[in-house]
Amino acid sequence: MESKIYILVVEDEPEVLDSIVRDITEFEDHFNVEMTDTAEEAEEIIDQILEEEEMIGLILCDHVLPGKNGVDLLIEMQNDEKTKPTKKVLITGQAGLEETVKAVNEADLKHYIAKPWEKSDLVDITRKLLTDYVIEHVKDPLPYMQVLDAEKIAEHLRTGRQITDQ
Amino acid sequence: MNKTKSIGLILGIIGFMIPLFVQLPGLSLAGHLAMSIFILAAVFWMFETIPIYSTSILIILLQVVLLSAEGFVPYSDTVYEAISYERFIATLADPIIILFLGGFVLADASVKYNLDKNMTRILLKPFGSDPKYIILGLMAVTAVLSAFMSNTATTAMMITVIIPILARTDYSDPARISIALSIPFAANIGGVATPIGTPPNAVVIAALNQQGLNIEFGSWMLYAMPLAIVMLIFAWFLLLKLHPPATKVLQLDLKGEWTRSTKAYILYVVFALTVLLWVTESLHGIRSSIVALLPVAVLTLTNTFEKEDIRKLPWEVLWLIAGGISLGISMKTTGLADWLVGSIGWEHMAYMILLGVFGGFALLMSNFLSNTVTASLMIPLGISLATSGVIDGPASMMLIGLVIALSTSFAMVLPISTPPNAIAVSTGVVKTKDMIVSGAIIGAVAIVLILLMVHFYWPYIL
């Protein structure tokens, strides 16, 4: 399926990056997964995606990165109208309370995942946030029903009345 | 704009031009213009060059400009007596549109106060835990609700009910397929049961009204509900045969509470009263479209249905229906419909074969096109068949109307055939192949049954 929605994974340790991407493979048929190891490169990728008028549904971001850190990247995204709707998740082992609070308050952080994580938790969170994103920002959510929370999407169709009899 | 739409745009414009340059013997100037509009509408509807509801509005605009007394074409010296533009724009408030408006308000208010879900909960209870009967229960409830709400909204609601059931069912159990297919099929079938069940019914009823045939809410149910019931039971048998459930027990775990606010109670009462008045029209004589104003008025004046809710009504469906009605008016008044009918040698066809051709064609077309569009394109021709004497009498007009309306609703072969089908396939539980097999069998059986009703049932109750 040709998707216009991206999942962006930012993580500097190659093994960790691999395991995140491996854990969320079930979404790959419906979403494009892009990965990178620095915030700076993430910004470039974001610009490219937006330039092609495609969407970033979810970012899974490590906190400690070489150069600019993950929290600052998420805050920057929150302050840009185009990336504000993106669901933001911080994956980290060492963020202090202060940094975490900052991410919640200033980047509208949707979830905090502590390392090491359970695969099922990561999958559940990814599914929940992508479902929310699709419901809020995609006109026709039907193609995503299969891989996301179908009950929630059906409920949205019931109450939102996007699809009508013809 | 993708390739299909572009082809539609080009074909539509070329098609629109043809009658302007080619003189067709026996067809008036107005008939030529009506044909231009008909071709443009048919092509745009088929290729979905523009949204189908905008095609409807475009039809009304073109009719006002080209065919009305106030339009730009002088008809004073011709045989065509130009009708007022008001006739065309009045289709937007045709009695059947008002009936649908009442239905929409009731349906959307039901969603708002969870009446649809609570009814489902109550109605499903007696069906126990045997998967066979649970599927029957799901189908019966879906059909009953979709007779009064939109087929699509009913399907969406029922999908939220079946997903927890599917999640508890073994992945390889065919019950998953029969359950997931039962919902859209039952929703499509239930739509035929009442005038407000599905938009094609509206287009056909409006066209018959134009001919002076008034169809009561209850009469329609008498004509169409037996078909819906038989087909529902047939579809149930078919699904159990093709995908027999392996599990012996299915737990229905339906939680929920009745909404107990004053507004919700107002809705319950208004809903019950409206439906009661609709089905008893023959006793009190108040037309169903007048009754339809009751929920609209009472629910809004009590703020049960608020301004935001009014804005969220599916207005585009009403536009779509209005365009279909309006197209029928000009095809009739300009003589185009009669001309089209007259140019085909129907006389050589036996009566039943003729109705069979209409039903079969409607079924085939609406598998690929919107059901409403199919009905809109076919009903003017069907009515002309009756008025031009190819088939006889007012009863034949009713019969052909019923054949067209009912046949379009039994198109459920492909995911694109109806929105309920699309939703069911999107869950990923049903393969398109499964839908094609059972959908095709249901369609074929429905046509046979409709023809049997033409012969053995309707003539005796009309």
Describe this structure in words.
- The complex is a heterodimer of chains A (166) and B (462).
- The relative contact order of chain A is 0.15.
- Chain A has a domain at 5-118: Rossmann fold (3-Layer(aba) Sandwich), CATH 3.40.50.2300.
- The longest helix of chain A has 19 residues, at 119-137.
- Chain A has helices at 14-23, 39-51, 70-79, 97-107, 119-137, 150-160; strands at 5-10, 32-36, 55-62, 87-92, 111-114.
- Chain A is globular.
- Chain A is of the alpha/beta class and 166 residues long.
- By secondary structure, chain B is an all-alpha fold.
- Among the domains of chain B are: 1-92, no CATH class; 95-311, no CATH class.
- Chain B has helices spanning 3-21, 29-47, 52-67, 85-89, 95-112, 115-124, 131-148, 151-168, 175-190, 199-210, 217-242, 262-279, 281-284, 288-291, 293-301, 307-311, 315-333, 336-342, 351-368, 371-387, 393-409, 419-426, 432-456, 458-461.
- In chain B, α6 (115-124) packs antiparallel against α7, α9 (175-190) packs antiparallel against α11 and α10 runs antiparallel to α21 (393-409).
- Chain B is globular and about 75 Å long.
- Chain B starts with a helix and ends with a helix.
- The model of chain B has no long low-confidence stretch (mean pLDDT 91).
- Classes of the chains: A alpha/beta (166), B mainly alpha (462).
- Chains A and B meet through α6 of A and α8, α17, α20 and α22 of B.
Largest sheet entry of chain A: 5 strands, parallel
CATH fold topology of the domain at 5-118 in chain A: Rossmann fold
Q: Could you estimate the helical fraction of the residues of chain A in percent?
A: 40-55%
Any idea what the shape of chain B is?
globular
Structural class from helices and strands of chain B? mainly alpha
